[in-house]
Amino acid sequence: MDGEISVGMGELEVTDDKEAVLATFVGSCVALCLYDPQAKVGGMAHIMLPDSSKDASGRGNAAKYADEALENTIGAMAEKGAQAGRLVAKIAGGAKIFAHEGSEDMFAIGTRNAESLRKLLQKRGIRIAGEDVGQTYGRWVRFNISSGQVKVGKRGREEKVL
C-alpha cells in the first residue's frame, strides 16, 4: 500500500504501512488519530456523533459514534501489533458549522463530539498529544504513519502540525 488513504464519514482505517497517509475532511465531525510510536501503527476514525446509546437501529458504521470508534480503532490497531498502553491521540474537527449554534445548544454537535471523545480517551488513559478543535470552519486532516505527525489544513489559513 502506498500513498494517501481516504477515510470517509463514519469510517475508520488502520495501517502499519510506513508509506501511508490517512486523510479526511471534517467539519462538525471529529477526526481521531491514534498512534503507537513503537509499533508504528496508526488509525484514523471519522466520528460523526458523540454516543451510540441513543441509536435504536443498532450498530452503525464502525466509527459513526465516538464510543464505538475508539474501541473499534483500538481493536483494529491491536491486530496489527499496537498496544493500548502505548497509544497517543491527536484530534481535529468539532467545528460549529451553523452560526446559530451556542455552547449550550443541544444541536452543537461539533462541541459535543469533541467533549465526548476527550472524556472517552481520558477514561481509557490515552493521552491527547495535540488537538485542533472548535471554531467555525472545516479542516483537512492528514496523518503520516511513518512519523506519527498529523497536519491540519484550513481553507485560507496556514497548515498546523499537531
Summarize the structure in words:
- The chain is of the alpha+beta class.
- The chain has a single domain (3-161), classed as 60s Ribosomal Protein L30, Chain: A.
- It contains 2 helices and 10 strands; from the N terminus they run βββββαβαββββ.
- It has a 5-stranded mixed sheet, with no helix packed on it.
- The protein is globular and about 40 Å long.
Brief sketch in words of this structure:
The chain is α+β, with helices and mostly antiparallel strands and 162 residues long.
Oligomer: single chain
Helical fraction equals 10-25%
Taken together, the total number of domains comes to 1
Low-confidence stretches: none
What global shape is seen? globular
Mean pLDDT, nearest integer? 91
The overall strand count is 10
Q: Give the CATH topology.
A: 60s Ribosomal Protein L30, Chain: A
β-strand amount: 25-35%
Our count of helices gives 2
- The appropriate CATH architecture is 2-Layer Sandwich
Distance between the termini: 24 Å
Outline the fold blueprint.
Layout: E1 3-6, E2 12-15, E3 20-26, E4 30-36, E5 41-47, H1 66-78, E6 88-93, H2 109-124, E7 127-133, E8 139-144, E9 150-153, E10 160-161
Parallel strand pairs: 1-3, 6-7
Antiparallel strand pairs: 2-5, 3-8, 4-5, 4-6, 8-9, 9-10
